[in-house]
């Protein structure tokens, strides 16, 4: 876990919103055609008013920081929160601050 990479990723409001939406995908992405158990398809985030390239950049940053995991099925990439890394980061921040 790279705390500095995570802090950089969390410094952007759009990435925080993406993580928040991924926390409860059934509430935020009820119309996704694929089962939400797979994760959320990147194209679903375009509904938030962001372009595909912006969404891709934000998801890449979150993935590099270890805050989301990916799963590829055919042409689609699905994203889920990495709850283990998030919990580890929160515990470290609580201990250090």
TrEMBL record:
MF terms (GO), sorted A to Z: DNA binding; DNA-binding transcription factor activity
Entry-linked SMART domains: HTH_ARSR
Positions of the HTH arsR-type domain: 1-97
InterPro entries linked to this entry: ArsR-like_HTH (IPR011991), HTH_ArsR_DNA-bd_dom (IPR001845), HTH_MetalResp_TranReg (IPR051081), WH-like_DNA-bd_sf (IPR036388), WH_DNA-bd_sf (IPR036390)
Pfam families membership: HTH_20 (PF12840)
Gene3D superfamilies named among the record's database cross-references: Winged helix-like DNA-binding domain superfamily/Winged helix DNA-binding domain (1.10.10.10)
Keyword terms: DNA-binding, Transcription, Transcription regulation
Domain of life of the native organism: Bacteria
NCBIfam families: HTH_metalloreg
Protein name, per record: ArsR family transcriptional regulator
Organism from which the protein derives: Rhizobium hainanense
């Amino acid at each position: 876990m790279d705390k500095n990479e995570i802090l950089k990723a969390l410094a952007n409001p759009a990435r925080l919103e993406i993580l928040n939406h991924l926390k409860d995908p059934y509430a935020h992405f009820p119309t996704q055609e694929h089962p939400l158990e797979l994760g959320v398809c990147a194209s679903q985030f375009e509904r938030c008013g962001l372009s595909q390239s912006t969404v891709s950049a934000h998801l890449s940053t979150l993935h590099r920081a270890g805050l989301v995991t990916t799963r590829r099925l055919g042409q689609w990439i699905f994203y889920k929160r990495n709850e283990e890394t998030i919990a580890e980061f929160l515990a470290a921040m609580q201990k250090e601050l």
